[in-house]
Design brief:
Radius of gyration: 17 Å
Strand content: 5-15%
Number of helices: 10
Order of helices and strands: EHEHEEHHHHHHHH
Low-confidence stretches: none
Strand order of the largest sheet: 2-1-3-4
Protein name: Glutaredoxin 2
Structural class: alpha+beta
InterPro entries: GLR_AS, Glutaredoxin2_C, Glutathione-S-Trfase_C_sf, Glutathione_S-Trfase, Glutathione_S-Trfase_N, Grx2, Thioredoxin-like_sf
Shape: globular
Helix content: 40-55%
Distance between the termini: 34 Å
Largest sheet: 4 strands, mixed
Pfam families: Glutaredoxin2_C, GST_N_3
């Protein structure tokens, strides 16, 4: 099977995770950010991830892909229960994290920005959505302080480094991609158990962190 992705995309990380957690091979195909033709031809819209199954059928939507792959062999790994407090935490951090992440992602060495036009496409689209990147970068100290306070509230919610609730669940599929994205932000102090969870989940899911792109 093939999975069309952008490396920076947290929804793509969700889809990538299930293959790593199940030790199932997958061919990753990174699209240029301004390539509208390929995804439109596959699913009728510009969005990723897109899973192309063995029979050639294309499937969008990260959670649909996760559930399909997890259940395909009759041996699901995401069997744990979810904790509403994790969803609440993610919603809170999602309300401001784009201001920290998108300006840094825009200048990082991702394969989806291999051409100048692909990078410009991303910058134009995202600045139209969240405002001027330079202004958000200038406010980084305040945003990092808010994030560090929220990371302190996440710490007691982590039951195990192997799975946030003690047993793998869809909470891990939602939580790790955000923590992985945040690894591009320099100067963020994580509680020890949050950092240990992030590192372990990167290992288990076979999705590396972005520390080499830290800004």
């Amino acid at each position: 099977m093939k999975l069309f992705i952008y490396d920076h995309c947290p929804f793509c990380v969700k889809a990538r995770m299930i293959f790593g957690l199940k030790r199932q091979p997958i061919r990753l195909v990174t699209l240029l950010n301004d390539d509208e033709t390929t995804p439109v031809n596959l699913i009728g819209a510009k969005m990723v991830p897109i899973l192309v199954k063995d029979d050639g059928e294309a499937m969008p939507e990260s959670l649909d892909i996760v559930r399909y792959v997890d259940r395909q062999d009759g041996k699901p790994v995401l069997t744990g229960s979810t904790n509403p407090a994790i969803a609440e935490w993610l919603q809170r951090v999602d309300s401001y994290s784009a201001k920290l992440l998108l300006p840094r992602i825009a200048h990082a060495d991702f394969e989806e920005f291999a051409t100048g036009s692909a990078r410009r496409y991303f910058i134009d689209k995202k600045q139209a959505a969240i405002g001027d990147f330079a202004e958000h970068l200038a406010n980084s100290a305040d945003l990092i302080a808010e994030l560090e306070a929220d990371l302190q509230t996440l710490s007691p919610l982590i039951v195990s480094t192997d799975a946030v609730n003690g047993e793998l669940s869809e909470d891990d599929i939602h939580l790790f991609p955000l923590l992985r994205s945040l690894s591009i932000v320099a100067g963020v102090a994580l509680p020890d158990n949050v950092e240990a969870y992030r590192n372990r989940m990167a290992q288990r899911s076979e999705v590396p962190l972005l520390l080499d792109m830290e800004q």
